[in-house]
Design goal:
Structural class: mainly alpha
Number of domains: 2
Helix content: over 70%
Number of strands: 0
Oligomer: single chain
Radius of gyration: 22 Å
């Protein structure tokens, strides 16, 4: 492949216009609808301290492989055949990864590890090969990423071969390597660290990609709610639980999309350092948002199947923890793009903390209704405050601080 051919694989940069998300990227995302479903079902089936730890690790891996692919397709053009073929091969790897999730800590650990390592390393090798030599900074960035992912791949494969707690420890080390690497800007001996300025991203596209994953997670929660409700007798309790689950999902959509998603897209599009903002606001801070939606989906299923029973530990943890994680993620995300903490979100976090003290004495249905009510209040409060102009604009220096976060 010649230099001109390799350079042609990069997205064309159009000033003041962000690249749209392509159909190939949306097609690729379908695999992760399945992955999110597998994660929520796995957590539901093994809601123990060890099971929760294992599922959290699997979620972090799924998020990381998806977000790294989003970075690559932000640089490369998925409308071109070589990049499309890469996405289709990654889809195949993603299917193997997803189908391995329920037994990743049992009989299919090596399958999970190999699929993950091949996706991470193989995709980065493609990026390196696709980058012409005259793009020195981009090539060095790809090389640094490849070194870090190759080291973590060793621990992934070793963990897949190991058994029991050794697998958990080795995979935790692999994840730690990968999550630390962007924070230290992929430092490697001799070549040092990359500059955040080297991470040239098309901000609007990155914001739209991450918003798409939020839709994936919310869609999965609706699928879980609908499929569970369809198999249950339609009593007052189950219908109320179904309505509460739907309203809770709607409130989450409103909190994230009504103002936050658009504001984030606008800020990163005009930022002088979009790579820095993409790393913090979209690579890291979207994790608790997505995790909160998945955990809420688990709570919805528990409430639907036992609406009038005693609220056990897993019901309380999922019903409170889901919205809590979501609000923590969104308040930090919006702080990054606005430069100030959203009062409505802080109040919601406090209210959920207070509710947790009394949750054990409530039925699952009542607990669900109260958490949904809190989320509605947060959504309405933010909408009214922004509409009235409170916090709708911020001083220029505050915007600068948000950009440099």
């Amino acid at each position: 492949m010649g230099d001109n051919q390799r350079g042609a694989l990069y997205r064309p940069i159009v000033p003041n216009q962000h690249s749209r998300v392509t159909y190939a990227e949306l097609f690729f995302d379908l695999v992760f609808v399945f992955a999110v479903t597998q994660i929520s079902h796995t957590l539901l089936g093994r809601f123990t301290p060890l099971g929760a730890l294992q599922t959290t690790l699997l979620f972090l891996a799924v998020w990381w492989v998806w977000v790294y692919t989003s970075w690559i397709t932000n640089w490369l053009n998925p409308e071109l055949t070589p990049v499309r073929v890469l996405l289709f091969l990654l889809m195949l790897g993603g299917l193997v990864l997803s189908t391995s999730i329920p037994k990743a800590f049992e009989s299919r650990g090596l399958w999970f590890a190999v699929a993950y390592a091949v996706m991470q390393v193989g995709r980065t090798v493609f990026l390196l090969i696709s980058t012409p030599p005259n793009r020195t900074l981009a090539r060095m960035n790809a090389l640094r990423i490849l070194v870090w992912l190759s080291i973590s791949a060793i621990f992934w494969i070793a963990g897949g071969i190991a058994e029991g707690h050794s697998r958990l420890v080795l995979w935790a080390v692999a994840l730690a390597i990968e999550y630390i690497s962007p924070a230290v800007r992929f430092w490697i001996p001799k070549y040092g660290a990359s500059s955040v300025g080297d991470w040239v991203v098309e901000g609007g596209h990155m914001a739209e990609r991450c918003a798409g994953f939020i839709i994936i997670a919310l869609g999965e929660s609706i699928v879980v709610t609908g499929s569970t409700f369809a198999d249950l007798p339609w009593t007052i309790e189950t219908v109320s639980a179904f309505a509460s689950a739907f309203i809770g999902a709607l409130a989450m959509w409103w909190i994230y999309f009504h103002k936050g998603a658009e504001a984030g897209s606008e800020l990163i599009s005009r930022s002088s350092e979009p790579g820095r903002l993409a790393r913090l606001a979209y690579t890291y801070l979207h994790m608790p948002i997505v995790a909160g939606i998945i955990l809420s989906a688990v709570a919805d299923e528990l409430v639907l199947t036992h609406p009038a029973d005693h609220s056990d530990v897993k019901t309380v943890l999922s019903a409170i923890g889901g919205p809590l994680l979501f609000l923590i993620g969104t308040i930090l995300f919006k702080h990054t793009i606005r430069g100030w903490l959203q009062l409505s979100h802080g109040a919601g976090i406090v209210a959920l903390g207070i509710l947790a003290w009394f949750a054990a004495g409530l039925t699952p249905l009542m607990l669900s209704l109260l958490t949904s009510a809190i989320m509605i209040v947060v959504a309405a409060w933010e909408s009214i405050s922004l509409k009235s102009g409170a916090g709708e604009t911020q001083p220029e220096e505050t915007q600068s601080e948000a950009t440099n976060a």
